[in-house]
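Subject: mismatched residue count in predicted assembly?

I count 478 residues in my input, but I want to confirm that the predicted structure covers every chain. Input:
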Amino acid sequence: MPSPHDPRQNHLLAALPVDEYAHLLPHLELVPMPLGTLLYESGAKVRHVYFPTTAIVSLLYVMENGSSAEIAVVGYDGIAGISLFMGGESTPNIAVVQSAGHGYRLKAGVLLAEFTKGLDLQHLLLRYTQALITQMAQTAVCNRHHAVEQQLCRWLLLSLDRLPTSELTMTQDLIANMLGVRREGVTEAAGHLQAAGLIHYSRGKITVLDRPKLEARVCECYAVVKRESDRLLSDRISH
Amino acid sequence: MPSPHDPRQNHLLAALPVDEYAHLLPHLELVPMPLGTLLYESGAKVRHVYFPTTAIVSLLYVMENGSSAEIAVVGYDGIAGISLFMGGESTPNIAVVQSAGHGYRLKAGVLLAEFTKGLDLQHLLLRYTQALITQMAQTAVCNRHHAVEQQLCRWLLLSLDRLPTSELTMTQDLIANMLGVRREGVTEAAGHLQAAGLIHYSRGKITVLDRPKLEARVCECYAVVKRESDRLLSDRISH
DNA sequence: TCGGGTATGTGCCACAGCGTACAGACGCAG
DNA sequence: CTGCGTCTGTACGCTGTGGCACATACCCGA
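Triage response: the counts match. Full output below for your records.
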């Protein structure tokens, strides 16, 4: 009988060849990741990296005045803590659990040792980092040019892609913090989407009813990120 | 008598230990980089990487409707073409010369071979990439929360940091394309700065008269990027 | 069952930025 | 010196979003 938890639910771990995976496996520690957990603080040294399986992690920048903006989002497709192997050990951003679930964590030293060998893990993590860079770049573009409603669509789709069901637990207030807009703006945009029958929500539960229509309404940013992620992280790793 | 052109004007090349630098040196090709040169197209395979010395390169995303937004800027502090060693070979962005000058380019294969050895060059490029990530993330934040005038200040300071003089050749129209705003918005913001005696400009020449006051008026984004770049790329590389 | 906290809906005003149009101002080529 | 193209300045209305205030709806626990 298979365990409900398996590190290979994370796509990066799943893409590793068996021998490299075997090196990491004894060190992978299953951790619950409840909503709101702070994985990294701004400027703090990274002690563990996290491979989410069912949780979703949000990378945020918090401004001096307290308002915030989401930079990128990480789910079972990725890893939180790239500054470790990029060599900086910390970033000015924070990482917060946006959707509760589980993940596997690894002590910094273990990952670094394996990364330094320069084998498949390194290639994989660097390609993933490039996908993350694309996501950040597109976030910048979207923040510049697109309306709140479109950004909400993008955000919903990015979350949906990282969840097993089409229901997400997330208040409008939290979404507003992620997007860096007013809560009322989210209320209004979500009202439109609900009126059009694309979603249903009530008190922190959002259900996506019609994903195709959502994709029809989103800005090009979503597709750019999706296409690039698929390209970079198709299971066949090309060297 | 020293040549006016020296690869070590580029800080990444300058930070390399002599033996690794020696491997690259025979392959480094001095190239003029006139204003507007397209170094990479969206999705095109990277054939060369560029180490600017006196030129400045802008990484842009161009939307389907033709409008654009700057993602990050690269000068003598960096390298254009990170997708090569990150493993993706291409990105959805373009790279354009924003300020004319020179740089050294290297064939993709040469850089990749040296990068794969996993020595100082690799560490250096990855740390630089992290600095670039910070710049992108902060661009996203700035686009979300800050006014055009502050973004103009940030843009001027980022450019100034990568130039030898305090004069930049750049029409307001071009700046507007970079920032992804209207030309009139730049005119207005620049008018304020000129009235306050911070800058002087006329027909494509902008002279910064009072940098300290410019730094006083810029949003926190500039300092975040600067601090992180300095931290990651101080000449002593820590392993 | 009732109360209090939380989540959502709505309205109002202010204003920055967009789209558009057009008027100077400057510089270079002829 | 003249004319034309380019760059910069200014004005107008419009809309999306921010800041604020408050009303309603829902849930959970006492």
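Chain B has two domains: 7-142, 147-218. Marking this ticket as 'not a bug'.
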